[in-house]
Amino acid sequence: MASPTKTKRQRETNVNVLRASLLPKLARRYEANGEISLPCAPSMLDHYLKTLTSTFELLGRPFSDAERANLRKILEKHLEKGWAESPYSKLVIKYHTEPPPHPGINYTVKHVVNTIGDEYDRWVKMREPPLFGTHPDAKVVRLAAELGAPADTPVLDVGAGTGRNTLPLARLGYPTDAVEIAPALAEVLRKMVADEKLRVEVFEGDALDPSLPIPRGRYKLIVLAEVVASHFRDTSQLRALYERACELLAPGGILLFSAFVAMDGYKPDALAKEVSQVSWCPIFSRHELEKAAEGLPLERVADECVHDYEKEFLPPEAWPPTGWFVNWSLGSDLFALGAGRAPIEMRWLSYRRRS
Q1: pLDDT of residue 93
Q2: Thinking of the domain 116-353, which architecture would CATH place it in?
Q3: Could you report the per-residue pLDDT of 224-264, keeping only the tens digit for each?
Q4: What is the Cα–Cα distance from 75 to 239, expressed in whole angstroms?
Q5: Fold held by 26-112
Q6: Who contacts 136 (Cβ-Cβ below 8 Å, separation ≥6)?
Q7: Nearest to 203 by CA among 164, 157, 134
Q8: DSSP string covering 313-344, please?
Q9: 166 vs 144: CA distance, rounded Å
Q10: Reported confidence tier of residue 25, pLDDT bands at 50, 70, 90
Q11: Nearest to 285 by CA among 301, 268, 305, 307
């Protein structure tokens, strides 16, 4: 009886092929653990998904289509929840590989909500003062002087921080009140007011909250320096600001604030809007700024580039106010473009309350 024919196996001997075939097996011996923290911007969903799955693949843990779809669903849920709470929320992904030679990876996803107060608490703890510069805004001081004698020109400084504008105005004799939402900053400001024995009322809370006991109809000037430009999220907040200003301003008084404005020809999409909030330079169009004021007794009286104005009128020793001011005010914190090339810039906008 004949012996069964033995199948001759085809052995691979090509060095390059063999080298390539070793790597997937070696990857099963990789061990890794880590944590990734990302801004909670929902428009970044697909980019984040690609980043994470690429990272896991580099660790020898490629995802199937079903695994990718599941991860996408989880990311989407946490991005939306975190974003709804605060633009400073973080998406936190923790992961670790299964013990070798298992090919799997375990991960968890959650969102962590950070508030404005949380952000500025870190500033106070980690940054050297002065946090916002050593000199008041030239626009604020010059405008206050135009409105009358200091004793007759009450000022409300909203988002006063540690008093960069509040303290110099009070020293000059302007009846000055301050509003600060971040407890850590309000505490610093109160101490400085007390140390100098200045007559400044510091209101801690949200200036848009009608329950905050700010005197109505009192102020000739309300200032929000770098507040709308850092923290306002949408036109509903703008509308609330305009309405609140109408309550607090005396007839003929001025509302002055800085905001990042989209230049003519540029219409920011959802991604740009979200990332601008994450980057502390939320974008508004001029149409949005004016639409929010419709029907209110306010008329716009000035619209000026903050960078150019402050550079012209600040004392030479006070320019730039901070190391980050120039790039930030010209939009380069949002767009990786040279100075002056970004399609946004910070503008001083002022509105007069009609009688």
Answers
A1: 98
A2: 3-Layer(aba) Sandwich (3.40)
A3: 999 999 999 999 999 999 999 999 999 999 999 999 999 99
A4: 32
A5: Heat Shock Protein 90 (3.30.565)
A6: 164, 165, 168, 169
A7: 157
A8: HS-GGG-SSSTTHHHHHTTTTTS-S-TT-SSE
A9: 12
A10: confident
A11: 268
